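User: Quick sanity check before I run a bigger batch. Here is a single chain. Can you write out its predicted 3D structure?
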Amino acid sequence: MQGLSSFALAWTITLTVVDNLLRITALFVVPRNRRPTSGMAWLMAIFWLPIPGFLLFLVIGSNRLPKHRTEKQETINGLVTGIAERENNKLVSNHDDLPAALVPAVKLGTRLGAQPMLSGNAASMSINYEQSLLDIAKAIDEAETFVHIEFYILALDDTTRVLFDAMRRAIERGVEVRVLLDHIASVRNMYGKETREELDDMNAQWSYMLPVRPWRGEYQRPDLRNHRKLAIIDGKVGFMGSLNIIDASYNLKKNLRRGLLWRDLMVRLEGPVVLGLEAVFQGDWYIETGEFLEHLSPFETFVDDETKQPGDLDCQILPSGPGYANENNLQVFVALLYTAQHRISITSPYFVPDGSIMNALRAATARGVEVELFVSEIGDQPLVYHAQRSYYEELLRAGVRIFMYKPPFILHAKHFTIDTEVAVVGSSNMDQRSFGLNMEVSMIVHGTEFVRDLDEVNDYYRENSRELLDEEWSQQPLRSQLFDNLARLTSALQ
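Assistant: Done. Predicted structure follows.
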C-alpha cells in the first residue's frame, strides 16, 4: 500500500512538472511569427490541457512546408518574376490604362504572387453545375496537344463521367493528359479507388498533391491542402473557379439525406491569362513530380506571343498558400477593398474574416460604400458555419447587408466585386484556412463587362436569398450564441 502511494505521488509530481514545462515552453514557441489571436487561442488550449494541447500544436501548429517544397516554389516564382520584369513583355497590362486606385494592388499582387496583370483576355462564366462540367469536357474534346487538370476534389461518379470520358478520348488521339488531385480529399472520397483505377486505365499522367504518406517520406502538416481548381487546354483555353469535379451532392449520405446541392461558379478564359493558369499548374506539377515541363513552358510565351488577343479584359492570376512568404490573397484582397468608392459585393461560403478584412469593411461602410455579403442560410461544416455566424452581429452593426442563400443549396462560389470595374474570382474563401493553410488561386479582373456579368449572378443570388436583419439576429437563442462564440475561438487555432 505504501509502494502504491509513493508511485501515485511520484506520478503526480511528474505530471505537474511536465505540465508546467509545457506551459513555459509554449510561451516561447507559440507566439513566434503568429497572429496574436491565433497565438492566444493556442496558449489557452495548452494552458487548459497542456499535454493534449501541446501534442495537437505539434501536429497542426505550423503551416511551414518541407524545405524541398519551398525551394521548388521559389524556383518557379523566380522564373515567372524574371519574365514579368522584362521590358519587352508586350502582354503585361499598361498601368497607365488601369484605374489609379487599382495599380498599387496589382503591383502588390505581382510582387507577392510572381504574376503580372495581362491584357487582351476574354471570359465567360457559368453557375450551372452540370453545364460547367460539360463545358470543360467539350474543351478537352477539342484539345490538340495537352490537357492539364488540377482540382482539390476529383472523383469519378455518374455526374463527372462525361469529363473522364473526354480525357480518355484525348489520350487515345495522342494528347498528353496530366492530372493533379489533392491526396487527403481523394482518399476520403468514397470513389477514390475507382478514380485512381480510371486514371491508370486511360494512361493519364497523374499525381497526388501534398500527399501524407510518412512511410514514403512524404509528410507535412496534414491539414495543409491544395484547394485549387484549374483546367488548361493547349495553353489557349482555361477554366478556374470554385467547382470540384464531383456530383453536386458530394455523394455524401448526410447531404443526400438533407437534399443538399452545391452552387458554384466557374469561369472560362481565353487569352494570355491562360498562360498564368498554366504557370500555376506547371509549378504544382514540378513540386509534386519533380518534372519541369520544359517542352510546354509558358514562360517565354509571356514575352513572345503576339497572336490576336481574344478580348479586352485585364487579368492577373494570384496563387497563394504556405509555399509563399506572405498571405498573398489576404493582402491583395484587403488592398482592393480599400479602393472601393461606391459598392462592394462579396460571395463566400466560409466567411470567417481576420481583423484586417473586418477593418476594411467597417472603413468602407463608414465612408458611404454599400457593402453586401452573400452566404448560405444553412451550413455543411458545423464549426465553420458557427464561426461565420459569430461575425453577423458585428457586420450588421457596421451596415453590411447579409443575404442568406436559401436551402437546399450550399452557395459555394467565391468572388467579390469592387465598384463597376474590378472583380476577383477563384478558389479562395474569406477565412483563415484559405488565407494561411490552403494553396489557392484567385484572379483579379479589370473590365466593366465582366463585372456586369457578375452583377447578374449577384442578382440571381439576391432573388434566391433572404436578407438577415438586426431584429431577427437579436433574437438568437443563447445556445446558438454559445456555439457561435466557441467556434470562433477554435477558428484561430492555426
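The chain has a mean pLDDT of 89.

User: Great, the batch can go ahead then.
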